[in-house]
Each structure stands twice: as structure tokens, then as C-alpha cells.
């Protein structure tokens, strides 16, 4: 490992600091059959997540919001979810009132390639539920999909296009007298290799989500946490070097899938594998005062396959901390953190 994340923590300055990192959750917009969630569905999701504390009772914090409120947090990806073309889901209309009812905050994701529709949906409700909005991200792996997927730039956005989308949203927000932290979410490697530099240096950007998965690096579970730490260290260090100002940084996605029989090279799906990565990777990062969004809260059986850096595809249906029916996956319902990479029990594989 090149430098420690503890050292990087001193170089990256979040908007506010708490004694332990925050665990948030990526949250999908659909039921297991692909139909759209209702407000009640989101409230039921929040009821489950509100009971999940990654910290043992001896630690001072549970799921603390690094802003002023002590609220749990989720992130979304688009406000008009068009993943199934014939059944788009309007997200803001249902997740924001659910979040307000259950005491959650939301990182509102805007799909940069369909920005106008997402802004219209979000801004219809943004004023009414302003207190539930933690931040706004414009784009989800837009740069990774444009520069690193082998499809001839048919998806995603170039860095200049993404910058324009961020600036366009910022102006639309200010026109409504709204003031949310604005940024983007992308893969660790586009931050580390300089692809995202013009976005990082955009002064309208105040929050960045950095996605990193040991799994998608084609490494075994026993090497996954160190790969995860190393990837984030490289990305966080590069961001702090080129930004020229404080930026709030979160690990925007990480996790490990549990789809039976699936694998990505040396990375093998499994419940004990996911449990091991949570204990040795996610918990350690939280213990180093870094904020993490786990991908994802609940399984999504309707999803198509996804592609990693080696262009191998793998099902993206089994990445949840919980099953799609909200029942727990981990052995003995153990989602606790000791913040110790050396924690052992019979279900930890390494």
C-alpha cells in the first residue's frame, strides 16, 4: 500500500468531522419484480435500515450525519428511473416524503444523461423536502462508462460534458434559491488517473463519491480489503492534490455480492465472503473516520448483469446487505463493527 488512509484522512477535509465514519446505503427504486416502489415501500426500507447500527454500543456514534443532524443516510441514482424503459419510476415524489417521515437524509442522484427530466422531478419536491436533502450528485460513473467501457463512447459523458451538466444543475438550483452541496459519483480509477481532474477542479463541486470494489478488481476475498484500501488511497490522494480546496469525499459504493455460483475471476460470490469484506474492509474504513455508502441496501433480482474492468460480466442481483424481502443475510444477523481488520469468528474467512 502506497500510503495509509489514516494519513490521507489528514489531507482530505470533509464539511464536518465526526469521531467515526458514517455508513450509508445505496437504495434502489424498484421491487424485486421491477415495478416501482411507493412511499410506503421506502418507509419500510427505512424502518429496516434504521435498526442497523454498524457500531458496537461502546463506540460514541451510530449512523451520524456529518452535517448538523444525527440522521441515517441513503443515496439514489436518478429521479426518473428509466432502467426498465416501459415503466419509469418517479423517485423524488416518494422517497423524499418517506425520508422526512422516517428521519433519513438523501443524497439525490441526477442521471446526467437525462438531466432535464431528473431536475424537473427533483425540483418539483425539493423546496418542500429541502431538509431531507444531504447533497446532489450529477452523474453516476459517467466518466467511467465513457472512457473505460469498450462501447465506443456510446454511454456516459466526457469530462467536459459532465462539467457542463454540473454547472447547469448548479445554476438551476440557485435559480430556485436552493443551496445543496453538488458533486458527482464515479469509479476510483477515473479520479486516480486524472480523467476527472477538470471536474475535481470545478469550484461548483463540493462533494465527490468515489466507488471502489475489491470484487471488481478480480481479487480473492483474502486480498480484497487491502486492494480496496489501496484503490481509495490512490484516488483520495490524487483528489486532495489537484482540488486546491476542501472537498467532502465519500466512498460512494463498495460491497460484495452473494449470488450463488457466480464469480468474477478470483472473486467468488458468497454470504461469508460478503460478511468477511464487511468486517475487514467496510468496518475498518469506518473506523478510520471515512464515510461509506454500501452497495446496496437490498438485493434487486430484476437487474441485468454488470461489467468490471476486465470486461467480464457478472449478475448484479445479489449485492444487498439484505435480501430483497428485507430479511438479513449475514450470519446471526451480525452487522456490528469492531473497527478491527483482525477481528475473527468462524464466519470470517481470512
From TrEMBL:
The residues forming the signal peptide are 1-19
Question: Which Pfam families did the record assign?
Answer: Glyco_hydro_17
The processes (GO biological process) annotated in the record are: carbohydrate metabolic process; cell wall organization
Where does the record place it?
Answer: Secreted, Cell wall
- Return the EC number: 3.2.1.58
Task: Keyword check for Chloroplast, yes or no.
Answer: no
Q: Which InterPro entries match?
A: Beta-glucan_modifiers, GH, Glyco_hydro_17
Q: SUPFAM superfamilies recorded for this chain?
A: (Trans)glycosidases
Reaction(s) catalyzed by this protein? Answer: Successive hydrolysis of beta-D-glucose units from the non-reducing ends of (1->3)-beta-D-glucans, releasing alpha-glucose
Q: Which GO terms describe its cellular component?
A: cell surface; extracellular region; fungal-type cell wall
What keywords would UniProt list here? Cell wall, Glycoprotein, Glycosidase, Hydrolase, Secreted, Signal
Q: Cite the PANTHER family for this sequence.
A: GLUCAN 1,3-BETA-GLUCOSIDASE (PTHR16631:SF26)
This chain belongs to which protein, by name? Answer: glucan 1,3-beta-glucosidase
Instruction: Please report the organism this UniProt entry assigns to the protein.
Output: Letharia columbiana
Amino acid at each position: 500500500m502506497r500510503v495509509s488512509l489514516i494519513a490521507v484522512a489528514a489531507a482530505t477535509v470533509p464539511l464536518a468531522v465526526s469521531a467515526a465514519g458514517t455508513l450509508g446505503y445505496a437504495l434502489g427504486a424498484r421491487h424485486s419484480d421491477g415495478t416501482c416502489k411507493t412511499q410506503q415501500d421506502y418507509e419500510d426500507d427505512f424502518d429496516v435500515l434504521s435498526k442497523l447500527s454498524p457500531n458496537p454500543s461502546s463506540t460514541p456514534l451510530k449512523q451520524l450525519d456529518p452535517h448538523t443532524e444525527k440522521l441515517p443516510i441513503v443515496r439514489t441514482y436518478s429521479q426518473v428511473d428509466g432502467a426498465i424503459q416501459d415503466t419509469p419510476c418517479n423517485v423524488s415524489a416518494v422517497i423524499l416524503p418517506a425520508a422526512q417521515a422516517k428521519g433519513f437524509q438523501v443524497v439525490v442522484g441526477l442521471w446526467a444523461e437525462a438531466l432535464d427530466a431528473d431536475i424537473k422531478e427533483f425540483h418539483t419536491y425539493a423546496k418542500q423536502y429541502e431538509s431531507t436533502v444531504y447533497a446532489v450528485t450529477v452523474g453516476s460513473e459517467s466518466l467511467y462508462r465513457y472512457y473505460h467501457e469498450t462501447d465506443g463512447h456510446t454511454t456516459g459523458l466526457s469530462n467536459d460534458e459532465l462539467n457542463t451538466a454540473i454547472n447547469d444543475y448548479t445554476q438551476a438550483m440557485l435559480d430556485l434559491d436552493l443551496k445543496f452541496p453538488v458533486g458527482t459519483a464515479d469509479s476510483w480509477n477515473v479520479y486516480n488517473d486524472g480523467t476527472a481532474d477538470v471536474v475535481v477542479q470545478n469550484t461548483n463541486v463540493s462533494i465527490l463519491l468515489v466507488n471502489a470494489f475489491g470484487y471488481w478488481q478480480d481479487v480473492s476475498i483474502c486480498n480484497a480489503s487491502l486492494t480496496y484500501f489501496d484503490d481509495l488511497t490512490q484516488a483520495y490522494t490524487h483528489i486532495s492534490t489537484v482540488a486546491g480546496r476542501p472537498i467532502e469525499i465519500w466512498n460512494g459504493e463498495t460491497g460484495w455480492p452473494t449470488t450463488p455460483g457466480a464469480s468474477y475471476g478470483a472473486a467468488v460470490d458468497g454470504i461469508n465472503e460478503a460478511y468477511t469484506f464487511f468486517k475487514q474492509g467496510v468496518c475498518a474504513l469506518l473506523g478510520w473516520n471515512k464515510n461509506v455508502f454500501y452497495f446496496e441496501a437490498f438485493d434487486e433480482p430484476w437487474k441485468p448483469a454488470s461489467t468490471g474492468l476486465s470486461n467480464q460480466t457478472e449478475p448484479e442481483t445479489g449485492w444487498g446487505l439484505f435480501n430483497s424481502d428485507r430479511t438479513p443475510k449475514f450470519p446471526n444477523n451480525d452487522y456490528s463493527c469492531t473497527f478491527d481488520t483482525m477481528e475473527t469468528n468462524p464466519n470470517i474467512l481470512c
